[in-house]
């Protein structure tokens, strides 16, 4: 099946996705806050919405980047190099500033299923960091000369969702305990920061060294 990446690539991608899913960000903050305020069912619909946002990003990246490759392989090479630099910058930022998880139980009218899905959808769709990250992260796992690059980008994008959703759902189910535990155990968050920084520094170095050959 042409759309399947190599096994080592798939393992590396899954590991990076798991790390990303476990790192606190706007989506995790929103889902935990919603779980505390309106219950786990409402928060699970938020998780569904964040995943739908990732679907949109996947489609845009897959078809946009494949068009870029067709138009200019050199431009794609520049994008990947810029992506490597961005991944390294994320690693530095993780060490300098660390993960932030500030959860407040905000009481208010209970949201409908649609409003909870919409909240999750828009928090990912309009987050500039998510947009830039997807544009730079997914291309690290494909080859510009691969004729199945579009299908592989689509496959990886949906793998990102399939790997991340169970983690996000588990976070929701353990929201009460997890929110207080993470906020009182900053050393754990710092450990995640260093792991995050190490993994993405390796990805950045790998792509730069590959292009230098």
Describe the structure.
This protein has helices spanning 7-22, 26-38, 40-71, 73-97, 113-125, 128-137, 149-173, 175-184, 186-211. The chain contains nine helices and no strands. The chain is 80% helix and 0% strand. The protein is an all-alpha fold and 213 residues long. The longest helix has 32 residues, at 40-71. The mean pLDDT is 80.
What labels describe this entry?
single chain; 213 residues
Question: SSE layout and pairings?
Answer:
Layout: H1 7-22, H2 26-38, H3 40-71, H4 73-97, H5 113-125, H6 128-137, H7 149-173, H8 175-184, H9 186-211
Helix pairs in contact: 1-7, 1-9, 2-3, 2-7, 3-4, 3-5, 3-6, 3-7, 4-6, 4-9
Mean pLDDT: 80
According to DSSP, the number of beta strands is 0
N/C terminus separation: 29 Å
**Compute the gyration radius: what is it?**
18 Å
Described by the principal axes of the CA atoms, the overall outline is globular
List the uncertain runs.
none
Helical content, roughly?
A: over 70%
Order of SSEs: HHHHHHHHH
């Amino acid at each position: 099946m042409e759309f399947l990446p190599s096994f080592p690539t798939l393992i590396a991608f899954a590991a990076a996705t798991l790390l990303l899913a476990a790192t606190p960000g706007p989506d995790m903050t929103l889902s935990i806050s919603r779980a505390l305020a309106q219950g786990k069912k409402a928060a699970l619909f938020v998780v569904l919405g964040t995943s739908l946002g990732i679907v949109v990003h996947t489609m845009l990246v897959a078809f946009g980047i494949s068009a870029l490759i067709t138009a200019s392989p050199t431009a794609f090479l520049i994008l990947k190099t810029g992506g490597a630099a961005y991944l390294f910058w994320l690693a530095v930022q993780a060490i300098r500033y660390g993960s932030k998880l500030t959860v407040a139980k905000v009481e208010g009218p209970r949201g409908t299923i649609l409003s909870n899905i919409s909240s999750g959808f828009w928090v990912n769709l309009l987050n500039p960091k998510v947009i830039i990250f997807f544009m730079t992260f997914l291309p690290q796992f494909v080859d510009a000369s691969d004729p199945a690059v579009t299908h592989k980008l689509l496959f990886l994008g949906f793998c990102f969702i399939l790997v991340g959703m169970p983690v996000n759902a588990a976070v929701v189910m353990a929201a009460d305990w997890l929110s207080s535990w993470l906020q009182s155990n900053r050393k754990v968050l710092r450990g995640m920061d260093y792991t995050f920084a190490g993994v993405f520094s390796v990805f950045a170095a790998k792509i730069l060294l590959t292009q230098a050959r």
